[in-house]
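Input (structure):
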């Protein structure tokens, strides 16, 4: 049971009783949208720059600048809960910057195995824990509780990097009896989140995979993936790689609030175009689709992705396990108060009356008429545009451990 330290009503001024984290409303207005959400992709800007018909005219300020979650409740395994208190002073809040902290950890293994029947891969690599992109709906948030941290602001600001990832990977791939199969990157945290710029762990992992002729699939919300075009295009020639850009909306204002440090929608489209032009098979993931928030944009996103060179498409319906439900609902009420109840009610209608149902048979797609309608629209749009569904066809047959053949020759 949680041990509440102090309980006080919320006000404009808060203190965090543990002095570890402080929560304040920033008061900053949302940044204006970029001039064009499509940028240099050459797409049809007059169609694709339109905001979502369901997006609000102006999205109000939401917590700290550049952060998705509004709060930082204790992790679910903690014995103490942090609470907000009113100190009684009538002094306006000054926005407190929340710095990103990165801790290097020495990982013991790097390949994570998974047996879920509803995901198309059985192994993955996550060079980082936590994700600075800070998408409010991120289903990886609850994993931060295993480190005694919050699924809220901690998840997007207290990050862990695994600098020994490439070395470990080379060791694991060299093990006798290793059976190659596509490795997924970007399944839990984004391999191209901002800290990759300096840590370059994802790149070092790709270098190992390329040396071993090992297939990989990547999902990202960052244009930073194009930094590695050299290695990706080289791997693409050997049918070793496929990249999917995750796009949830073409509305920059909505994206800015919902996924504050991910690339703008225009930049993600630009990344697709650059990858495609470099010969890298590219797809689009519309993930997550959120009823009454971005589902009206399905056809537009797919059309934009098609013109940017995407060959395939996939989607996931919003999932709200564990702490995410409260974080998301809190964000909705703060940012879209007039629509919050409707969104939550539709979400429940796609999950048999609950906010979330983890049953494998419907975890990704939902159930009920609204979920069916979304699936149907998605399928029809893909068919019309010639976008393949799924299709992570990469080649595992040329896997080799560098140097091993030479050693055999010398025996
Ligand atoms: S980019 Fe992906 S991993 Fe990162 S916060 Fe967003 S949804 Fe989560």
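Output (sequence):
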């Amino acid at each position: 049971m949680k041990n509440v330290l102090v309980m006080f009503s919320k006000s404009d001024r808060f203190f965090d009783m543990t002095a570890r984290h402080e929560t304040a409303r920033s008061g900053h207005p949302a940044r204006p949208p970029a001039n064009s959400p499509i940028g240099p992709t050459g797409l049809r800007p007059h169609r694709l720059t339109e905001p979502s018909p369901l997006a609000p005219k102006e999205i109000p300020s939401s917590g700290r600048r550049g952060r998705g979650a509004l709060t930082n409740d204790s992790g679910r395994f903690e014995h103490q809960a942090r609470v907000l208190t009113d100190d009684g002073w009538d002094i306006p809040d000054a926005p407190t910057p929340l710095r990103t902290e990165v801790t290097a950890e020495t990982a013991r293994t790097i390949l994570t195995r998974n047996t879920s029947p509803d995901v198309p891969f059985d192994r993955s690599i996550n060079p980082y824990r936590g994700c600075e992109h800070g998408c409010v709906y991120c289903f990886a948030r609850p994993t931060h509780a295993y480190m005694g941290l919050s699924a809220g602001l901690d998840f997007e600001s207290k990050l862990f990097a695994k600098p020994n990832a490439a070395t470990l990977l080379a060791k694991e791939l060299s093990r006798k009896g290793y059976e190659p199969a596509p490795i997924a990157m970007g399944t839990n945290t984004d391999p191209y989140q901002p800290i990759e710029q300096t840590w370059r762990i994802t790149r070092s992992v790709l270098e190992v995979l390329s040396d071993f002729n090992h297939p990989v699939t990547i999902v990202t919300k960052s244009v930073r993936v194009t930094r590695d075009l050299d290695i990706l295009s080289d791997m693409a020639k050997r049918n070793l790689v496929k990249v999917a850009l995750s796009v949830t909306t073409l509305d920059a204002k909505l994206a800015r609030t919902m996924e504050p440090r991910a690339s703008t929608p225009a930049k993600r489209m630009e990344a697709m175009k650059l990858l495609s032009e470099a010969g890298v098979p590219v797809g689009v993931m519309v993930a997550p689709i959120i009823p009454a928030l971005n589902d009206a944009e399905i056809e537009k996103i797919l059309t934009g992705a098609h013109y940017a060179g995407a060959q395939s498409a996939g989607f996931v319906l919003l999932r709200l396990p564990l702490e995410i439900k409260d974080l998301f609902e809190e964000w909705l009420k703060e940012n879209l108060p007039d629509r919050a109840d409707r969104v939550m009610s539709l979400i429940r209608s796609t999950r048999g009356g609950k906010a979330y149902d983890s049953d494998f048979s419907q975890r990704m797609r939902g159930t009920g008429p609204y979920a069916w309608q979304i699936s149907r629209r998605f399928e029809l749009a893909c068919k019309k545009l010639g976008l393949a569904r799924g299709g992570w066809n990469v080649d595992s047959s040329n896997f080799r451990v560098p140097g091993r053949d030479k050693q055999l020759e010398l025996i």
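Notes: Residues 350 and 369 are 8 Å apart (CA to CA). DSSP finds 13 helices and 15 strands in the chain.
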